[in-house]
Amino acid sequence: MLGPGLILRPDIIAVDTTDNVVTQVQQTAGSIGYVDLKTAQDHIAESQFKIIKIDNAEASLDNIKTDRYRFWAVEYMYTPKDSSALATSFVSYVKKKVKDEKYYLSYDDVPASILRKHL
Predict the structure, then answer these.
(1) Bridge partner residues of 20 (DSSP)
(2) Taking the model in full, what pTM does it have?
(3) Which of 62, 72, 84, 94 has its CA 20 to 30 A from that of 36?
C-alpha cells in the first residue's frame, strides 16, 4: 500500500491501510485491491468481495504451498541484533499466532524453491 495522498495516475487510488483498501474496493465499482487472504475471506462471507483465480487456481494456502497460486508476498519483521526482551517476545508471539491461524503460512510451511521466487 502506498502513503495517503500519493497520486500515481488519476485512475489509481492509493491507500495506507487494509481497512482503507476494503473501503475503497467496496465503494469503487469495478475496482481491484490486494489484501491478505483472511481479510478477503472474511469479506466474502459478507458478500462484499470476490477473490479472483489466477491461471485457474484459487487463492488458498495449499495452492501457495504448491506454487499454483503465485500472487502472494512475504512479510518481514526486523529487529536489531540486540533487541529488547519485549521485541523478542513480540516476534515470538507473531510466529506462534501465524502457526495457530489457518490463514497464514510461516516460512517453514513453504518449500524453499517456491519461497525463493518471492524473496
Answers:
(1) none
(2) 0.70
(3) 84
